[in-house]
Automatic annotation (TrEMBL):
InterPro entries the UniProt entry points to: NTP_transferase_dom, Nucleotide-diphossugar_trans
The organism's place on the tree of life at top rank: Bacteria
Enzyme Commission identifier(s): 2.7.7.24
Identification of the protein by name: Glucose-1-phosphate thymidylyltransferase
GO terms of molecular function: glucose-1-phosphate thymidylyltransferase activity
Domain Nucleotidyl transferase: 2-230
Keywords assigned by UniProt, alphabetized: Nucleotidyltransferase, Transferase
Length: 345
């Protein structure tokens, strides 16, 4: 079975974080989203993995996946939808069964049940119960079989959201190739499943029970970061100087914690420096980042960021790579700023 990750989109809902890089490269608890996708596919048994990229995203996706084993990068020349992206990979798929992963999704559960369900079906769709189905593509499922799909219905027929993972046999590609563009002008892969059903085929639905996020908005990203931080194994591989750690804390090699208090769950990346600060809970601090005289919680600080906020509490904030934050006053503050931004508040 081949693995295929769709990662050509930049993610407009995640702006400004995604303004200067693909959203799939954003770190969640210290691991890029795209790397988590690769790991999930490999754990499910898909060793030969392709990644569909745009011309602007390929270089950075290659960089962040170094060390993830052999990967094949496939260019999608235009943003014409998920179905079009799959067709761009047709030569790579070589007529084999495929485990398809929409690259901005994050799963706690293994993808193995999706692969296994393909043994008795033409295709498989992953679904998840959600409290707000009107925000998602809603799957209509009867007896474990997909019967319909409705995109963001105003009156949902159920609460099962299509959650960004599929498996399909080679013949499904013919159904994708036969699709007409949607009202958005895109070829939508999930619509091919309805064509399979209409032709008498079987599409199984596999329900996920654990954590799932499409990491599509800053709030989604922060919730995913908090979840994965709580799954870490504590370790202290850096340097601790006159500081206090409590709870689940990971201090990576080369990191220094000086005159600070850290309340887990917290991840402190390699060569990061915390100085005279209070950090956590539910906070990640990227590689080579510097926090000085800062109080921060429930937030994400990316690689090489610089934060000096002596009197304000930073919370529910996302601070991009190489960003600089200075906050000298004493009022609570929330920030979502992109890479290489400068905020002086």
């Amino acid at each position: 079975m081949k693995g295929l990750i769709l990662a050509a989109g930049r993610g407009s809902r995640l702006l400004p974080v995604s303004a200067t890089r693909p959203k799939h490269t954003v770190n969640v608890a210290g691991v890029p989203i795209i790397v988590r996708a690769v790991r999930a596919l490999r754990e499910a048994g898909a060793e030969d993995i392709g990644i569909v990229t745009s011309s602007s995203s390929e270089t950075e996706l290659r960089d962040v996946t170094l060390g993830s084993g052999h990967l094949t990068f496939i260019r999608q020349p235009e943003a014409l939808g998920t179905g079009h992206a799959v067709l761009c990979a047709r030569e790579f798929l070589e007529g084999q069964d495929t485990l398809l992963y929409l690259g901005d999704n994050l799963f706690e559960d293994s993808l193995r049940p999706v692969r296994a369900a393909l043994g008795e079906a033409d295709a498989v769709i992953g679904v998840k119960q959600v409290p707000d189905p009107q925000l998602f593509g809603v799957a209509v499922v009867e007896g474990g079989l997909l019967r319909g799909l409705v995109e963001k219905p105003s009156q949902p027929a159920g609460n099962l959201a299509a959650c960004g993972v599929f498996a399909f046999r080679p013949g499904v590609l013919d159904a994708v190739a036969a699709l007409e563009p949607s009202v958005r002008g895109e070829i939508e892969f999930p619509q091919a499943l309805l064509s399979v059903i209409a032709a008498g085929g079987r599409v199984r639905a596999v329900e996920f029970g654990g954590f799932w996020s499409d990491a599509g908005t800053p709030g989604d990203l922060l919730r995913a970061n908090a979840h994965y931080l709580s799954q870490l194994t504590p370790c202290m591989d850096g340097t601790l100087e006159n500081s206090e750690l409590s709870g689940l804390v990971v201090v990576e090699p080369g990191a220094r914690v000086q005159n600070s208090r850290v309340t887990g769950p917290v991840w402190i990346g390699p060569h990061a420096v915390l100085r005279d600060s209070e950090v956590g809970p539910y906070t990640s601090v990227g590689r080579h980042a510097l926090l000085s005289h800062t109080r921060i919680q429930g937030s994400m600080v990316d690689d090489f960021a610089r934060v000096h906020a002596p009197t304000r509490l930073l919370e529910r904030s996302i601070i991009g790579r190489h960003a600089v934050v200075g906050a000298p006053s004493d009022v609570g503050l929330q920030l979502v700023i992109g890479d290489r931004s400068v905020a002086r508040l």
